[in-house]
Amino acid sequence: MDKMTKEQRHRCMAAIKSKGTRPEILVRKYLFARGFRYRLNHPRLPGHPDIVLRKYRTVIFVNGCFWHGHEGCDSFKMPKTNTDFWENKIRRNKQRDIDEQRQIASMGWHCITIWECKLKPHCRQQTLDSLALTLYRIYLADHTVRHYRLPDSEDIPMAAEPAPEE
Fold first, then answer.
1. For residue 100, how many other CB atoms are within 10 A of its CB?
2. CA 21 to CA 40: how far, in whole Å?
3. Neighbours of 73 (CB within 10 A)
């Protein structure tokens, strides 16, 4: 049973922020210290991603385990009161996340999701280091030098040469 009144619970839940959360700030500080430059909550992309790295064509969502229903996580436990409401809300959040990521991927962007539980002190550095490594790999894959080979045939007219007369 809930120890708070309905009004107290409503006030507590309404006070939880969706932007500028502690996990998001941890990721932003790490990225900035490593030289990654980003924008926050870009309005033209579906879902207003938490962090947008245009140079890398990558967006990062920093998800709270409770609000986004992180399966298998200790931080996600379904509330015992008003269970139907919370099940529906979390299911809608999960479906919205999937739809937004599909839209962003169809626009040619890479999507990375970082879960709040992976930013706990015991595994934070590993998570952030793997994020940087992933961004470097994305950049290298998107910016590799592509070598084009001309066909072996010598019958190809050059743009500066007149067409052969027959």
1. 18
2. 12
3. 15
